[in-house]
Write a sequence for this structure.
């Protein structure tokens, strides 16, 4: 019997019903009062335990704290790695793919940090191209000095839904996990940029623009406004081999979509438990399946018909009913110069807690994939 689904709560409910009947009718009835009292206490305790287990199974089915019995008891099988597409992205990194960030210039004197000396900086800004406003958190690498000419690579990181930039930072255990990767020389010290993606607040836009210029222009905000703002405020490299995206769940979709659709800016995308086609909620669905906007955002089709020259690291678990099928389809479609490395867990479900232990591995991969991140 699966740990997820309706069968376990139903089975536990049947057990609870039997115990309830026994408590009500007082069965069994031992001949002596002492054993009878012990039996009654045992039935009541057992009923309470089963009721708690019913609630726990329903909550687990909704939030997937544990995705299988082996996940619950810590007996999961070792993960495996798959590679799809090719390795030609490295040769194409210097190929002109568009304007990118080449025309931008970092000011000689940068704007003052809102929290001088702190590693985590918080901003609220409005994108001039998109008109979108939102919170942006910036995690600076240790030793960052705005007066120094040293240039840093950038990882634009997206949170899930519902969520806020802080949820991505805490869910991925940033900045401590990334700082550990720096100390181990797994990746070059980098600037992490965590923008708000559900703009306006709590609206699941799938990080996409509203069609025809209507609705929030979130893709423009994330792919154009944010990189431009970063170049104007921090000491960063501007070549695409120094820019990557990263995200979890909805943020994983955003990471894949922004990276694949904007390879003039980004050379790599990291996708934790993400998917590869937009999945709008019923309350906001501006892009209809089959429409030109939908087709242009079908990353699985793009991976086969027009694969961009970027490197991707994708992670999922076989019992993640949402991300695993989407990832398998994406891997089957991927062709060069797109290069995809997939890390598939035997179990783990759709839990953000599976991600922090993998940060050293993915940072090492990023270092070996993009020159700008070489440790």
């Amino acid at each position: 019997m699966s740990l997820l689904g309706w069968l376990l709560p139903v089975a536990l409910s049947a057990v609870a019903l039997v115990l309830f009947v026994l408590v009500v009718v007082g069965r069994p009835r031992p001949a002596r009062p002492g054993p009878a009292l012990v039996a009654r206490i045992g039935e009541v305790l057992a009923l309470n335990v089963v009721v708690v287990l019913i609630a726990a199974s329903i909550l687990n089915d909704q939030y997937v704290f544990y995705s299988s019995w082996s996940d619950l008891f810590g007996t999961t099988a070792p993960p495996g790695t798959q590679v799809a597409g090719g390795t030609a992205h490295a040769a194409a990194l210097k190929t002109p793919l568009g304007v990118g960030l080449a025309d931008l210039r970092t000011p000689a004197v940068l704007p003052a940090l809102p929290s001088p000396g702190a590693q985590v900086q918080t901003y609220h800004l409005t994108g001039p191209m998109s008109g979108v406003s939102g919170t942006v958190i910036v995690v600076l690498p240790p030793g960052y000095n705005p007066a120094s000419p040293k240039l840093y690579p950038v990882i634009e990181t997206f949170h899930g839904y519902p969520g806020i930039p802080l949820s991505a930072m805490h869910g991925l255990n940033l900045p401590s996990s990334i700082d550990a990767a720096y100390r181990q020389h797994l990746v070059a010290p980098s600037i992490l940029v965590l923008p708000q993606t559900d703009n306006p607040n709590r609206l699941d836009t799938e990080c996409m623009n509203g069609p025809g210029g209507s609705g929030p222009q979130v893709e423009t905000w994330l792919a154009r406004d944010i990189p431009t703002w970063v170049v104007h405020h921090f000491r960063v490299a501007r070549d695409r081999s120094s820019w990557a995206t990263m995200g979890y769940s909805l943020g994983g979709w955003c990471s894949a979509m922004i990276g694949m659709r904007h390879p003039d800016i980004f050379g790599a995308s990291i996708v934790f438990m993400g998917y590869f086609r937009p999945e709008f909620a019923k309350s906001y669905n501006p892009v209809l399946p089959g429409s030109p906007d939908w087709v242009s955002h079908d990353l699985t089709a793009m991976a086969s018909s027009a694969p961009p020259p970027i490197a991707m690291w994708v992670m999922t678990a076989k019992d993640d009913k949402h991300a695993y099928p989407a990832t398998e389809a994406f891997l089957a479609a991927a062709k060069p110069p797109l290069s995809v490395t997939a890390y598939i867990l035997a179990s783990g479900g759709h839990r953000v807690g599976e991600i922090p232990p993998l940060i050293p591995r993915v940072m090492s991969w990023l270092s070996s994939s993009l020159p700008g991140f070489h440790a």
Residues 7-63 form one domain. The longest strand covers residues 120-126. Strands lie at 80-85, 120-126, 133-139, 154-158, 191-195, 243-248, 268-272, 311-317, 339-345. The first helix runs from residue 7 to 25.
